[in-house]
Amino acid sequence: MRPLLATARPLISQSAAMGALPTLRAATDPEVVGGQYYGPDGLGGFRGPSRGRHIERPSYDAALQRRLWTVSQELTGARFT
Question: Measured between alpha carbons, how far is 57 from 78 in angstroms, rounded to an integer?
């Protein structure tokens, strides 16, 4: 299994600095507007420079959003109103 992971890792991962770029772009790019999503531009969206990405339909599901919020609070112990 280790040889397979060693081979796959460079294809599906990147440095912490590169991984931070989408968040930094969303927070600092003056052309960003609310509701946009940024992520890696490379193979499968796993790695590469930051670019605007398509937001998948389940992301707009209000019931799913509430469930994710509830589970996140349960798992972390954090409570937000």
Answer: 27
* pTM above threshold 0.70: no
Write the DSSP assignment of 49-68 as a string of letters.
Answer: SEEE-PPPGGGG-HHHHHHH
Q: Tell me the residue range of the domain where 16 lies.
A: 2-55
Alpha-carbon Rg of the chain, whole angstroms?
16
- Residue 74 in domain: no
Q: For 42-54, how does the pLDDT look when each residue is reduced to its tens digit (9 = 90+)?
A: 878 888 888 888 8
Q: Which two tokens stand for residue 66?
A: 């509430």
Q: How far apart are the C-alpha atoms of 77 and 18, rounded to whole Å? A: 30
